[in-house]
Write a structure and sequence with these properties.
- The complex is a heterodimer of chains A (833) and B (73).
- In chain A, the strands form seven sheets. Chain A has a six-stranded mixed β-sheet with strand order 5-6-7-17-16-20. A three-stranded mixed β-sheet of chain A has the order 4-3-10, covered by helices on one side.
- Chain A is α/β, with parallel strands linked by helices and 833 residues long.
- Chain A is 50% helix and 8% strand.
- Chain B has a four-stranded antiparallel β-sheet with strand order 1-2-3-4, with no helix packed on it.
- Chain B has one domain.
- Chain B is mainly β and 73 residues long.
- Classes of the chains: A alpha/beta (833), B mainly beta (73).
Amino acid sequence: MGEPAISIVEHEKRQEWWWAAEKKRSSRLDYLRKAIWKKGAIGGLYPQGLYVDLERPVLQTEKARELESSPDPYVIKFAKILAHVLDNKTIFITDHSQLVGYLGSLPNTITWDPTLAAVLNHEVVNDPTCIQEPLEESLKIISEVADYWAGKSDLDKIMPYLDLDDAMKVLSGAIGWGVPLSRGGYSGKDYEYIMTGVHAFEDIIEELDRRIDEADEKAHEPGASKEISDLYDKMNMWEAMKIALEAGIRYAKRYARLARIIAENYETDDERKEELLQIAEVCEHVPAKPPRTLQESLQYDLFIQLFSRNEAIEGAWPARPDYYHGPYYEKQVNVDKTLTKEEALDLAGEFLIRAAEVSQYKVKWAREGLQGIEGTWVWTLGGVKKDGSDACNGMTIALLQASRLVRVANPTFAFRWHPKVSDEVMREVFECIRQGLGYPSIRNDPVLIANAMNWHGHPIEEARTWAHQACMSPAPCTKHGFQPMRMANATVNCAKIIEYVFSSGFDNVVNMQIGAETPDAATFTEYNQVFDAWVTQMKTVFSILVRPVNRARILAPKMTPRPFLSAISERSIESGLDVCDPSISRGNAWITAFTWVENADSLAAIKKLVFDEKKYTMAELKEALANDWQGYEEMRLDFVKNAPKWGNDDDYVDTIMLDCLHEAAKFSRELKCPSGNSWPILPENVSGNIHYANIVGALPNGRRLGDALYDGGISPGPGLDKKGPTAVLKSCSKIDHISDGRAFLLNQRLSPTQLAGEKGYQLWKTYMKTWADLGLDHVQFNCVSDEILRNAQKDPEKYQEVIVRVAGYSAHFVDISRKTQDNIIQRTVQGLG
Amino acid sequence: MKCPECGYEAPVSDFRYLYNARIDASVSIRQCIQCEAWLAVDELHGTASKKIGPGEAPWGKSAGIEDLADDVG
């Protein structure tokens, strides 16, 4: 006899939200949720059952070979390769689905783009986890593809044009993250152009034809000038854009045809037959023409995202889905009444599921840094419209509700809070947090709008359109404000800054000189000497990482063009320039500052114990660190326990944090991107605190090589914030969240017991009011008890669906490493009230 | 230091250091290089107290809320 069925209420009482969700969602959503494969790497390895898809690399390679002798310029060849993939890749329609399209040829495949980097291709060759049987046959194909692209891939082409010294330091993996490529990072989109129902692919093709004709005519008039010479490049770019858009329309029509074939020949269920015919109609209409319904709008968006990921590896998914799909929801659900709320909820849930299954093969360090997920797909909800009024709508609520039903860890949401948000919406936000999703994170809209104007000079109407580029970083969705590519290698492992103060810039882990050769720390007799060395190391490390990005941005338009992304961007359509061309972008660069707070805690410990109390000398400290604190345990504990720690409203250490931020902010103004704008810092971590654990040596805050670093942004060290939640907020509020940096991540853990019921909501609301009043720009919550997390470690099979907030993203708890799990459990659970 | 699981004896530094999940305690996790068991180690006294299994937390509970919420125990 089986166990008696447990009611939804009982599941919720036990905080088993995932079981409750399974019983609450529609049968369609339940089927679709279970029909996708988990794509995020577990630890650094892909889960069993996933395979590298070989279809696309073979298609790309065969087309590239065919075009070798073609007189086409590179950008057109590239567009033709993209079109060849879209025209020939295998397509399928999942049972019960209403939205179609996937990157790979089968649901359990991860797509591999061999045109990006030989280092990536080498990882595929050597991957022990996801090469499909028969192994010999697969390896033969992989080797042939990898051999062909060696020396031809984007990174191979770009590398000779970078400063070799900088490049070697970046590729050491000690201080940075990612590579400087326009087809490997985060791509914002010109949503104000492409997602407002005014322009779709056919309109753009018409516009491109007109521009090509005009340019052709002008180029053949009597005369000669640079402007005329430039027209040939522009005509090629416009032609490439056209090829990409036409391929997109054909791809959608292939789905329309497939849906019709299944409906008319194979489907026996009348209701499903109707749905398939509806899919056919949708795919015949979008992306060729602007959407008319919510289903078409979501399908249109999904196609755009897939095409863009056929062109590049996009590690993030900048989006504002309630804002751009909301008008269709409002029209159909509230005005025309052609769609019920339940039907809309199914569509919203399926949209999340279709996004959750998207996957692209990444190098192992990227997988380790983003444990459990495919990328940082943080979708932006809420916020204000261009005129400053509340932008929340029915789709905001539908997406929040859908997320609790489908419980995917990626995409997640970030909610743009502002004073006009209704209580109804705030309750939906709270319910997601209370049910342990770890999202939405909450962003302070007025602060971040002011921040965007301050750092990058975005006009207020544009600043108000902002969406997250990845976990945290805002950028407008406008013609000149949107960011076509954020090259992720301007991501600093900041704990190295304080480490290098003690090694005069020599990195003992990777055994090379990376930082500045500052004086021997053992000779320092004043705290100011330590801080001066810190500033020098900070400037050196930041510069090493920013320079290659600047260089690559300048090279990108010619060497690594993006014809599809350009084709959906007004500024490229108008100018005939590649979307990454810095001359047509306002610039929205930032330096992601991983492992930042270790610097403040370390400097405070040095100042207090070495210079104020004179308990130790700098020489002794240097020696203890060189020995990884081995044999110095009492001294180590002194540096942890008897030195002030960030997050306790203690001015001693908080002032040092501000000193560090002010120096970084000042230098950020001196660093310029190719568009001429600044490079503000943005402290956050993803799971870099675990990835870098074995790369960062011992630190004066008491950490040893191998220990997890703090969980990121301006979050206090786990367990070191001992004075309660208000003290944490007060410490963080000493930072000017408009001018000290671009954004600041704050992780907080709350007690699920405390958040229960109406009382829990009121407690949280009071906390959020304090947070807003203090002017912080971000906060995100974990709300899963220690007991559940420990049980999940003991019995992972039973707790497959437990979700936690790692850093700027959420992940299923069982998909992250034990070290990351323990790091999350050790975060202080803050008692409210 | 002696491994409580297999009896292997060696200096503390010969046991593979994994991590110290709680920075403000002298308990760390090391791995016995003979039996590969994860061990809770008192770094101050150089002794291994027990083998660590999934879900076990030798370094104590989350800080800060012990008096405020019962779910943390």
